[in-house]
Amino acid sequence: xxxxxxxxxxxxxxxxxxxxxxxxxKADKLQNSKVTATVKAEGxxxxxxxxxxxMLYNFQGHDTYTDKDKAFEVFVVIDxxxxxxxxxxxxxxxxxxxxxxxxxxxTFAAAYMGTFEFWGDAYALDFDGxxxxxxxxxxxxxxxxxxxxxxxxxxxxxxxNVTLTKALPxxxxxxxxxxxxxxxDNYGHYLEMTIPTTDVDGNEIFASLLSYQILVDRGGEQSxxxxxxxxxxxxxENMTVVPYNFTDYYDIDVAGKQVYIYGDDxxxxxxxxxxxxxxxxxxxxxxxxxxxxxxxxxxxxxxxxSSNDVVETSYYDLQGRKVDANATGLLIKQMRMRDGxxxxxxxxx
Length: 349
Prior knowledge:
6-stranded antiparallel sheet
């Protein structure tokens, strides 16, 4: 898959997350609407206390737009009489809503959830309010009438018959992931991976508690690969551990299905590896790691060409301006081949 295709697919999906891609008709409707959302102040965004315990719950509900049942994972925080839920919107999976508990009912007023981006435009997402009944220990929350989210009145999420059930995840050793391909296109080198959401015994584990890590072997010297904001322009901070459900909608696909890799010394790598990491508990964390899967590299696997095939090499900055071969930063390396074709890769030096 070419990167431009990945970008289009990711944008159309908006927020894939646990529940799967959002209905394309709904995405098209938003894109074609006349909505011009006003981005609200960061201070308006709801968040639970930083020291509060985040508990994992299973979501089950009926999507009235697609007329399908959906199941995914959300997080709940209970702080005295306040209750917070994260993940109710497929468009903004990191968004929290805040409610108040009294007499076995959790009431959530309409409120601003946060901002998501779609095709370069920023939209302020509102939660339109909901009421959940709770059992005695708040391990089950139900909302038969469900809830909606919207952007200036344009409804996005729309669920009924919603049930949230507290999950009791147990620590487990995740199954070993695999790298199925490491290749090159005109945008750089990329991995294709399969990361199971099962443990070593084949039992299902929670995707929201699963992460992965990329490793590099340079002739016996191994190190952890770092996703930096210099190379990955849509990251907000450097990362060495990537959550299973994470995507930057450009270089890193959900579940590690396609991940672009950058480095000016890739031709010196002898193997590239991946391992899964499973973490249970918020405050009292317990973590187990899978075995490392190593994908052996050859010069052909790394760049698909021999250095003898390159007749001219040029470097350009991201604005397309030609720069000196000794320039540093994020550059486009353009190679003119003996057969007249041109290959380009992104390098960080």
